[in-house]
Design goal:
- The complex is a heterodimer.
- Chain A is mainly α.
- Chain A has one domain (about 1-270).
- Chain A has helices at about 1-10, 15-35, 60-65, 70-90, 95-100, 105-135, 160-195, 195-215, 245-270, and strands spanning about 150-155, 160.
- In chain A, a hairpin with a 5-residue loop joins strand 1 (about 150-155) and strand 2 (about 160).
- The two termini of chain A are about 20 Å apart.
- Chain B is of the alpha+beta class.
- In chain B, the strands form three sheets. In chain B, strands 7-8-9-10-11-1-2-3-4-5-6-12 form a twelve-stranded mixed β-sheet.
- The longest helix of chain B has 29 residues, at about 5-35.
- Classes of the chains: A mainly alpha, B alpha+beta.
- At the A-B interface, helix 9 of A face helix 1, strand 3 and strand 4 of B.
- Chain A: Pfam families: ABC2_membrane_4.
- Chain A: This is ABC transporter permease.
- Chain A: Keywords: Membrane, Transmembrane, Transmembrane helix.
Chain lengths: ~280, ~375
């Protein structure tokens, strides 16, 4: 079942179109920055953007900060919203369910396919933004005396070795995948409620936009730690020295809670759903 | 017999009951943690005060957050200071001893580090890619985030308000520690502070939370607290500032903040007394700033040079209220309920006054500064 879903994901051109669009945003920003050499002031604009002009090796981190707030969650919401509702509206859901596979396994396979998409999209952005950063901004010299990969200055001012940078980027990828699990769970649940892919995706995006608004509102401070987008940017803390685990742990925890609850709700709803069309 | 209920419906209800149970269990966790009773033994306020005063040798590391609701506008050259009391500041602290500590101010994709070593202080600014070594003592400087960690603020308040009364407060769990509390109530009427509540670890005396409430206020307008705390010495490597190297800026300064820059501008001398209160911090060579008053009713006066003084005055008149002063001079005050800021324009000179003092005192100060000659 999982293999079927993965094959379906990577056979569809839309997977590559979405990944290409995700890669295009950092590329566009990099071209403007490299052409004008006008970085945003520190603390404004995307994270790390003010630092990439002096070291292009940091551009993958800046690219993550660019795609994470809007582009990546929109992509995940669209794909997850389509996971079940798309099959239902296309009339293929009943054929899927005819096979001797439980509905629970189908849901899990859909979720794993979404995780595979997020991994594919993030790795695409990392690779293309790394190459973009190196080509457009250049790099500082490695303390190891080699040209590539370069040393990178952490947010705390100490040098991150190439191996350390690779580990931190791996941590970033893992954290963003977990962060997107919450989005996927919301959209997947809504996808089992409605037969409209667009409705499910819009519902998930409405939840995320509401969460983003409440995160910035002091009056909503009491519920802020429990909002799904509260810790999305905590991956930046991988680039502090020492790594600040507080928000990373809380962010991963809250996403797992959303995943457990909403996947549970999707399971409860989907297993008794009357698939009529 | 309920003929509408089928086996499928019953299974569906059971599944939803499982999900609902999961939601209830998960939602109950933070509620239970918050209402779990605190069993810390009460500590006599005088005893707690002395433990806090002695806690400067207590090594610790933690994550602290300060939040101010004062709503001060950004003032020229003083933006970082006004932001400290008008917004939320997230800090990581590592403290080994009074001469070996580090405080990082965290932002989304930014970090400002301050390192204290036995030899010098160092600041690191990721946004500016700049490391600065600060040599020598700084007898007068602007407030900074490191002054707002619970230990630093509590000790500062208690040392300034030595004669004010202390009463016990209920214990409270702060950063997982069952902390003993006390309330400091200023005796004087000139200050805007109604009371300062302090909770500290009863064993080590380390302050963990400080809340400042203004007169007439129902809730604190400034709170600083640890969200995480660990007692014990931090690793030596954490307290070592970044090494200067190619690719980052490096400079050496004697006193780098805006106040020192103002002082170098040879501003107008400040009067020896204001509103009947003597200047009490005379430091040789420092004429740009002075502190008047006593205890929590102290206030700071800055003499600003022409151009930046004019900008600051216009900013305050935009957001504040006009204060009548003699001799054809101008003055305006911004009142936040706790921290009040006054600007006085005396011919081509500007005086900026800030303190936890009431508007009546500030009006007398405005009259005094409007009459400064020379």
């Amino acid at each position: 079942m999982i293999g079927v879903e993965l094959a379906k994901l990577f056979r569809r051109p839309r997977t590559y179109v979405i990944a290409a669009l995700l890669c295009a945003l950092p590329l566009t920003v990099a071209i403007f920055l490299a052409t004008t050499r006008i970085p945003p002031p520190p603390g404004q604009g995307g994270a790390f953007l003010s630092a990439v002009l002096s070291n292009g090796a940091l551009y993958p981190a800046a690219a993550m900060a660019l795609v994470l707030p809007v582009f990546l969650p929109v992509s995940v919401a669209v794909l997850a919203g389509d996971a079940v509702a798309g099959e239902a509206s296309a009339g293929t859901l009943r054929y899927l369910l005819i096979r001797p596979v439980s509905r629970s396994r189908l849901l899990v396979a859909k979720l794993i396919s979404l995780v595979a998409f997020v991994l594919f999209a993030i790795v695409s952005v990392l690779v293309t933004s790394y190459l973009t950063g190196i080509l457009l901004f250049g790099v500082s010299t490695s303390s190891a005396g080699v040209a590539l990969p370069p040393d990178v200055t952490s947010l705390s001012g100490v040098t991150i070795s190439p191996a350390g940078l690779a580990l931190r980027l791996l941590g970033t990828v893992a954290y963003i995948v977990i962060s997107m699990l919450g989005v996927a769970a919301i959209a997947l649940f809504l996808s089992t409620v409605t037969d409209s892919s667009l409705g499910a995706a819009m519902g998930a995006l409405a939840v995320l936009v509401t969460s983003q608004v409440l995160v910035t509102l002091d009056a909503a401070a009491a519920i802020r730690p429990y909002l799904p987008t509260r810790y999305w940017l905590a991956w930046v803390d991988f680039f502090r020295d020492p790594v600040l685990w507080r928000d990373i742990e809380r962010g991963a925890g809250i996403q797992l809670v959303y995943l457990a609850v909403l996947l549970g709700a999707a399971w409860a709803n989907f297993l008794t759903k009357d698939v009529a069309n | 017999m309920d003929i509408g209920r089928t086996v499928v419906t019953a299974q569906g209800l059971r599944r939803w009951a499982v999900v609902l149970g999961l939601v209830l269990v998960l939602a109950a966790v933070p509620v239970v943690v918050n209402v779990w009773p605190v069993r810390a033994a009460g500590v006599d306020p005088a005893d707690l005060r002395s433990r806090i005063a002695a806690s400067g040798i207590q090594a610790h590391q933690g994550y602290a957050q300060s939040a101010g609701l004062l709503g001060l506008p950004a003032l020229p050259n003083l933006t970082q200071v006004t932001a400290l009391v008008s917004g939320t500041t997230e800090m990581r602290t590592w403290y080994a001893a009074p001469d070996r500590w580090r405080v990082d101010v965290l932002g989304e994709g930014t970090e400002h580090g301050l390192y204290q070593t036995p030899e010098a202080q160092f600041t690191w600014d990721f946004g500016d890619n700049q490391l600065t070594r600060i040599e020598g003592a700084q007898p007068v400087r602007l407030p900074r985030a490191a002054d707002l960690t619970p230990p630093a603020l509590a000790r500062q308040v208690l040392s300034a308000a030595a004669g004010d009364s202390l009463t016990p407060l209920d214990a409270k769990r702060v950063a997982g520690v069952e902390a003993a509390g006390m309330r400091l109530t200023p005796a004087g009427t000139d200050t805007t502070v109604a009371h300062v509540d302090i909770w500290a670890d009863p064993e080590h005396g380390l302050p963990l939370q400080v809340e400042v409430t203004a007169r007439g206020g129902a809730r604190p307008v400034f709170v600083t607290r640890f969200l995480e705390i660990r007692f014990g010495a931090p690793d030596a490597g954490v307290l070592t500032p970044p090494a200067p190297r190619p690719g980052i800026g490096y400079s050496v300064a004697e006193a780098p903040d805006a106040l020192s820059a103002l002082n170098r501008g040879q501003p107008a001398p400040l009067p020896a007394t204001l509103a009947g209160l003597p200047r009490r911090d005379a430091v040789a060579g420092v004429s740009a700033a002075g502190v008047y008053g006593a205890g929590l009713a102290s206030f700071v006066v800055l003499a600003l040079p022409g151009r930046s003084g004019g900008r600051a005055f216009r900013q305050i008149t935009t957001y504040g209220l006009e204060v009548p002063v003699p001799d054809g001079n101008e003055a305006a005050v911004i009142e936040t309920g706790l921290l009040n800021v006054l600007a006085v324009r005396n011919r081509n000179r500007t005086f900026l006054v800030a303190g936890l003092v009431g508007p009546d005192l500030l009006r007398r100060v405005a009259t005094g500064l409007a009459g400064v000659t020379g």
